[in-house]
């Protein structure tokens, strides 16, 4: 395997495998430094922020007094970088007195801040490429002659250090590989990702929007997106009620003391919003989790062994603090609604309830046509005493029970140490996204800790009090993330049962056929079919193309023949052929399509 020379932030040089992830990121770190040098060369007085290299590529943040760098200027910057590569530029390690380093960037507040943060003993370690210096903060490739297969991808706004209270900078994204075919494959994947990006599709289909001016990470669900969400929610509630769950509504605010008791305040504080002081000693907290709320529902009555398993579920709204730079469409938000559920069981009910929950999850996956998934048993890292609840006996017992339950079901799984919740182990169902990445969709978590901390009990057959075990479970995660996942999997072409508009009716002539179209729509609405009639004064070809652009499952054209024969001309999304059908035949077809969750017959 080919090796390359890499410099570390302490100035030492080592050889690493070129094709390793470490070798790729060192190449990308060098490319980011070369981009900084190109920006300095092309734009005098430009201020330079952070340069980051990771598994997705690299980016550099910058700021100028006049108009920011535009996407049109990226090819010219690429040429400058490739020119440096031809000249075989080399990275040098220098230790610069802090005063000297600050003097060189005196008009650049961002470079100044980076230097001050990394200064040590009056000096700062830096990488130098020609006349440009940057703080040495990661391994970097030494020689620039390998930076050939590079592409600057896009520009976007990004807050300095990801904080919305900081200035907005210009972020330039790029990618680079050692081999040309690897770059071409990456660009192909990025194009596919762009076409499937739920943010782009959400805008095209008018599903949702997020406006940072009125609240970063707080999505607005537009009528079409709300229709899809409402369909999912009704489906989930019906499935859970049929499975023995009792649905509840609980407040999004709770006394902070509850989260101190649960341990969320201790283990999860950085992801919680600041408490609200009510002025009379009461501190209220926007909930980051629903479990303490469902515990209160359990505690509201004295419970008997006859009540167990007690299954409580809710589409519970939660709030979690995410840095502005981490927010992304519906994928990463600050307000979310979790398809949440908690079951309170006796010890001897754990295995059967676990199997019941897993059966529900897999059945739901079938209805959404989710087939590519695997099981991850997420366990505690016993060395991480800060992250996990300190009770070795509890952890051994609960982890053993989960393993036994999976073995009983004869399901393959893999173990992941350090991925457990702070209060107990869990089974994570890992699904593949549209681009092949792993994502946790569903979880089943075993919890002995919270019942103990909240003093939960039930009266057993012996008349004595016993402590229940709590099982946390989420079937499809949050509505926001699930919607993002489905949008990208379906590429915006939602199956008929989920589509916000299932049928689009186009009268050939408004005066002659508009009333027939309306009567047809009325019958469909009575059958709970989501239908619209296009009465606009536009050409029919335009209306048909727009229905296809909006990815409506069925477009019906009605003219003289259809009106006279009590029929419809049907065109399915993605097909060019039109089929003549009677009203009755079409109604039977679409209702069967909806009832079968649009699965292939």
Automatic annotation (TrEMBL):
EC code: 6.1.1.3
Domain Aminoacyl-transfer RNA synthetases class-II family profile: 228-495
Xref: InterPro entries: aa-tRNA-synt_IIb, aa-tRNA-synth_II, aa-tRNA-synth_II/BPL/LPL, Anticodon-bd, Anticodon-bd_dom_sf, Thr-tRNA-ligase_IIa, Thr/Ala-tRNA-synth_IIc_edit, ThrRS_anticodon
Keywords for the protein's UniProt record, in alphabetical order: Aminoacyl-tRNA synthetase, ATP-binding, Cytoplasm, Hydrolase, Ligase, Metal-binding, Nucleotide-binding, Protein biosynthesis, RNA-binding, tRNA-binding, Zinc
Record carries keyword Nucleotide-binding: yes
Cofactors demanded by this protein: Zn(2+)
Subcellular location: Cytoplasm
Catalyzed reaction equations: tRNA(Thr) + L-threonine + ATP = L-threonyl-tRNA(Thr) + AMP + diphosphate + H(+)
GO CC annotations on file: cytoplasm
Matching Gene3D superfamilies: 3.30.54.20, Anticodon-binding domain, Bira Bifunctional Protein, Domain 2, Threonyl-trna Synthetase, Chain A, domain 2
Superkingdom to which the source organism belongs: Bacteria
UniProt remark on cofactor binding: Binds 1 zinc ion per subunit.
GO MF annotations in UniProt: ATP binding; catalytic activity, acting on a protein; hydrolase activity; metal ion binding; threonine-tRNA ligase activity; transferase activity; tRNA binding
Binding site for Zn(2+): 291, 342, 472
GO BP term, pick one: threonyl-tRNA aminoacylation
PANTHER family reported for this sequence: THREONINE--TRNA LIGASE 1, THREONINE-TRNA LIGASE
HAMAP family per record: Thr_tRNA_synth (MF_00184)
Assembly behavior: Homodimer.
Name of the molecule in the record: Threonine--tRNA ligase
Species this protein is from: Limosilactobacillus reuteri (strain DSM 20016)
